[in-house]
Amino acid sequence: xxxxxFGLGIMATGVSHSDTLTVVDIRSLDQDSVAKLIESSGxxxxxxxxxxxxxxxxxxxxxxxxxxxxxxxxxxxxxDQLLLHKRGCGGVESKIVGRVIAADGNQALIEAPMxxxxxxPPGGEFLRLQAHNVLLRDLSSDVRKAAKSDAVVQSAVDSxxxxxxxxxxxxxxxxxxxxxxDTDSNAARDWLAGQFTAMGYTVATPSFSVVFNPYNVVRxxxxxxxxxxxxxxxxxxxxxxxxxxxxxxxxxxxAPGAEDNASGCAGVVELADVMSSRSLARSxxxxxxxxxxQGLIGGDALAQSMVLDGRLDDTRLVINQDMIGFSIDNxxxxxxxxxxxxxxxxxxxxxxAATYAPGLRVVQDLLPCCSDHMPFLxxxxxxxxxxxxxxxxxxxxxxxxxDIPSNITNAQALGGRILRxxxxxxxxxxxxRLPGDTLLxxxxxxxx
Length: 448
Hints:
This protein is of the alpha+beta class. It has helices spanning 31-41, 87-90, 151-158, 162-173, 182-198, 258-275, 297-308, 343-356, 374-378, 391-394, 411-430; strands spanning 18-25, 45-50, 52-56, 71-78, 82-86, 99-104, 107-111, 126-128, 132-138, 202-204, 207-212, 215-220, 222-226, 231-241, 282-289, 315-321, 333-337, 361-365, 383-388.
């Protein structure tokens, strides 16, 4: 996952003095209950942070509104200095120092002097807050029962082999896949192409340039395609980057990049394996791209190529997998993100998780950044990212020589659940169905 700055929003209004904030654990509540809690509390400021709700403001909110929920107080907070820090963009390398009020997934609510904000460029990693904010939303806490499983989809989900996935992850991590390492980048490219070829896909390795001072190198994406039987002009894309980096982005080695992003790229190969022998209604494109760490260069080249050949206009869904293996504990959470325009996509994944990947906590993020779904979103295509929720806990291993397979705690437990969720949605979109069968309960059907 690359460093890419996020965006600036609007400063909270009407609350500029020091205040005591209350942080409430809302994991047991559905969305309606959270809304009622905010209203009944009388808080002038709120920030929903996945499993946590932060309340504050000039009016003393009623503690009785959340008396039965775990909570804590944070005193002497300047609400006008609260910022959302998109840690998935700056990661552990961020130079900003601030008091963390609450955190979940790859986001943190911090109190920091506003002088930091002007230095964040347009599309920066810090967001000023409004009076009421939904920063992360835990979809698993909503009243969302698992749908009735579909035999065709279940068969595809059951074909996900987490041991095979982890073996491929480990193979990729044996290459130093820095964009500037010719030998190992090419070796990883050729290994990926061989994997897809052995599955029977049409494989290509289109080239693009990476200009990053002092380097000017040519790299290749690896794509694998199969044409659908019923709707050959409609495309589903699964993408993940195979390049890696260490702390020095210009260094050529060592950069094992097991979690970032052998995990996601190996996941692309695994989903291709699952679909390789099945009858497809829609066409599929599986892609492992390079140059992500230098600015989503390979992902941008892929998206633009699909614009030029007309495929992007008929792309129904892009699934991006980036850092899908690490969990610090047995709370197996995945952050799924897209733009508000495509929020319905995320409901599909939450339902698929409940039905086909039980035990996976799904957290919605509508403030996307920093990975290979962005070039597709920028061109108007419905794209989403799936990424592990314990980003900050991966800590010193991120972009480091210690990002090795043995440090990806709970890899198969979390990665297997994310892959099953993604396999279910992928199967619902691409596999041949009986006449009248719907792909998704949210209204996506097999036909137009």
